[in-house]
Predict the 3D structure of the following.
Amino acid sequence: MADALSGPDKAVLEQLAKGGDTPTIPREVRIWIYGSKADLDVVSERLSASWINAAPEPEDDGRWCIFAWRIQEATEEAILAMSHEIDAALAETAANYDGWETSIEQTN
């Protein structure tokens, strides 16, 4: 497991910071994972305890996708922990993690 954020994760956090985000405010974080139905069934089982809607669904183009979400902070530590969790869920499958997104949250 990596001890540092990936380039794409850093880029999202930089965009949030530019927008005035307060990373310690819990918010909805959404992820996308693509792969075969069989691989996504394995990934889904591994993620279902901590993600909402982690079940594989067919896409209009015939691919299979997990589009899951949960409430969490967007601090570097929280995103790194999330990345480790997703990497572990993908282990020994050919599924592909396509990234995450969230909203900018600000204190009043």
Notes: The chain has one domain: 7-13+26-102. The chain is about 35% helix and 25% strand. The first strand starts at residue 27 and ends at 35.
